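Homework help board

Subject: predicted structure for assignment chain

Our instructor gave us this sequence and asked us to write out the predicted structure in token form, then describe one feature. I got the tokens but I'm not sure how to describe them. Can anyone check?
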Amino acid sequence: MAESKKLSRQQTQALEGAVRRSEPVALSSISLLEIAVLASGGKLRPRTSLDEFFEALQKIPVFRVLPLTYEIAEEVASMGNALRDPADRAIVATARVHRLRLVTSDQRIIESKLVLVIE
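My token output:
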């Protein structure tokens, strides 16, 4: 699938452990948009075409795409201005609403302390 050079050892272990235990791994729907934008701009290089990447992702049963909902939008509005990027705000709000830890290396998200993270 995609290169995992940006994942820390702890992040890789958490994701591989969840997959091994068949535990659901949630993915914010806004993350799919970010993947598409990054791939089309050359900043992310999947090993396959974007279509094949998304198709493969859909076939992995542990991955669950969480939709953007009214509740998540309300959570975005309640978070204040700690994060400026609307996509980051939606991703953090999704994790908060669903009470999930977030796998991220984004220092702004980590430093915001708005959500529990796996660094």
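Reply (TA_rk): Your tokens look well-formed. For the description, you could write something like this. The first strand starts at residue 25 and ends at 28. That's the kind of observation they're looking for.
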